[in-house]
C-alpha cells in the first residue's frame, strides 16, 4: 500500500495536485541592533516537500494566494506597528 500526502492552500482551500506553481511562506524575525528593535518579516519560496512539513509554514497554490496572504499579513502589521518577534 502506497503512502500519499495531500496539501491544501491555506488561503483558498484548493487541494495540491501533481502540477502547479505552489509556494511556501512563513514568518521569521528581522534582527534589530537591540532586541526591542526586532521585527517580524514574511518569507516566501518555491514549493519543497521537505519544507512543507515545517511548523508554521503556509501552503500557497499560486501568486494570487501568495499576494492575498501578503496583504493580510501587512494589514496585521499595520494595525500593530510596534509588534516585535514572538519569543
Describe the protein:
The N and C termini lie far apart (42 Å). The longest helix is centred in the last third of the chain and has 17 residues, at 63-79. It contains 2 helices and 3 strands; from the N terminus they run E-E-H-E-H. The protein has helices spanning 49-52, 63-79, and strands at residues 23-30, 39-46, 58-60. The model has no long low-confidence stretch (mean pLDDT 88). It is elongated and about 45 Å long. A 3-stranded antiparallel beta sheet has the order 2-1-3, with helices on one face. The protein has a domain at 23-79. With 87 residues, it is α+β, with helices and mostly antiparallel strands.
Short description:
This protein is an alpha+beta fold and 87 residues long. It has helices at 49-52, 63-79, and strands at residues 23-30, 39-46, 58-60.
Major sheet characteristics: 3 strands, antiparallel
Low-confidence sequence ranges: none
Query: Distance between the terminal alpha carbons, to the nearest Å?
Result: 42 Å
Strand coverage percent: 15-25%
Q: Note the overall shape.
A: elongated
> How many H/I helical runs?
2
User: Which percent bin holds the helix content?
Assistant: 10-25%
Instruction: List the strand order in the largest sheet.
Output: 2-1-3
Number of strands: 3
Task: Please write the string of helix (H) and strand (E) elements.
Answer: EEHEH
Q: Which structural category fits the helices and strands?
A: alpha+beta
Report the C-alpha radius of gyration, rounded.
15 Å
Mean pLDDT: 88
Amino acid at each position: 500500500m502506497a503512502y500519499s500526502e495531500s496539501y491544501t492552500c491555506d488561503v483558498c482551500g484548493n487541494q495540491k495536485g501533481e502540477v502547479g506553481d505552489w509556494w511556501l511562506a512563513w514568518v521569521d524575525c528581522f534582527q534589530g541592533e537591540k532586541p526591542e528593535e526586532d521585527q517580524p518579516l514574511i518569507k516566501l519560496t518555491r514549493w519543497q516537500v521537505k519544507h512543507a512539513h515545517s511548523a508554521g509554514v503556509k501552503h500557497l497554490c499560486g501568486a494570487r494566494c501568495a499576494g492575498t496572504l501578503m496583504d493580510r499579513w501587512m494589514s496585521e502589521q499595520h494595525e500593530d506597528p510596534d509588534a516585535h518577534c514572538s519569543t
